[in-house]
Amino acid sequence: MLKKSLLPSLVVVLLLSITTLAQAEYGRTWNGYTLDAPYDQTTCAPSNLISTTGIEPTTSIHVWFFVQNPVTNNMDVLQQFYQYDDLTNVAFPYGLAGPISGTRLFEARVDVFVGGVEVTQLQAYWSVTCSETPTPPPGGEGCTPGFWRNHYAVWPAPYTPSNYFNTVFSVGYFSPTYTLGQAIWAGGGGLNITARHGTAALLSAASPGVDYPYTVAEVIAMVQAGDISHLIDANNLGCPLN
């Protein structure tokens, strides 16, 4: 009778244990592995470092970075790659998601494989809320992408349409041979608007004839961060060149 009375309790404990483990598998820590990722943030310059612990140098991982699509609410892939060993302070590619405005949801996921078999899936979700309205810097001039793509003759040195975008901005947004000349003609949103207005802002900042609100270094930093909303505003201040 004692054995029979204990059986239901043991079953309940076992089921609770299985449920807890199944839930943990899709969290930040599971089976001795840990994923260190940002938590919810209210800032326009979010922290971005992703690391793991517990993964052996001979263990393969598949790393995924996602952003929530505001139209479909699906998590769209920003970047993915394979490697062995732990991640160590890998930067989350916010810039690939375009400017952060309002609240956006991001995800990092690490699939762990041992002997070619997936044994663990670590996931971390966090939101970034950007609602800051900074004081506009001095400088009341800026030229649009439309101006620069129709006036190659006044592009300021050292920049030319043949310069490679990724090299100039120290990013990995496009193919290595994608040029500033292509970027200034890019249509649409997403990375294209970053390319178009980032290039126009760079040229305005570098031009001695334009009193642009930002320096070249500040423009490059904003393009790297993927937050170009202020550059778009500045590019429409009015162009003194002709």
Q: In brief, what are we looking at here?
A:
This protein is α+β, with helices and mostly antiparallel strands. The protein has helices at residues 2-25, 145-149, 165-169, 180-184, 191-206, 216-225, 229-235, and strands at residues 29-30, 33-36, 41-42, 49-53, 60-68, 75-84, 90-91, 102-114, 117-130. 30% of the residues lie in helices and 25% in strands.
Would you give an account of this structure?
There is one protein chain. This protein has 2 domains: 27-130, Immunoglobulin-like (Sandwich), CATH 2.60.40; 145-235, no CATH class. The protein is elongated, with a radius of gyration of 24 Å. The protein has 7 helices and 9 strands, in the order αβββββββββαααααα. It has a 5-stranded mixed sheet, with no helix packed on it. Strands 1-2-4-7 form a 4-stranded antiparallel sheet. Mean pLDDT is 86; it is low at 1-26. The protein has 242 residues and is of the alpha+beta class. Helix 5 (191-206) runs antiparallel to helix 6 (216-225) and helix 5 packs across helix 7. Helix content is 30%, strand content 25%.
Number of helices: 7
Predict the CATH topology of the largest domain: Immunoglobulin-like
Q: Estimate nothing, just give the exact number of structural domains.
A: 2
Q: How are helices and strands ordered from N to C?
A: HEEEEEEEEEHHHHHH
Strand content: 25-35%
* Global shape: elongated
The overall pLDDT, averaged over residues, is 86
Strand order within the widest beta sheet: 3-9-8-5-6
CATH architectural designation of the largest domain: Sandwich
- Helical amount: 25-40%
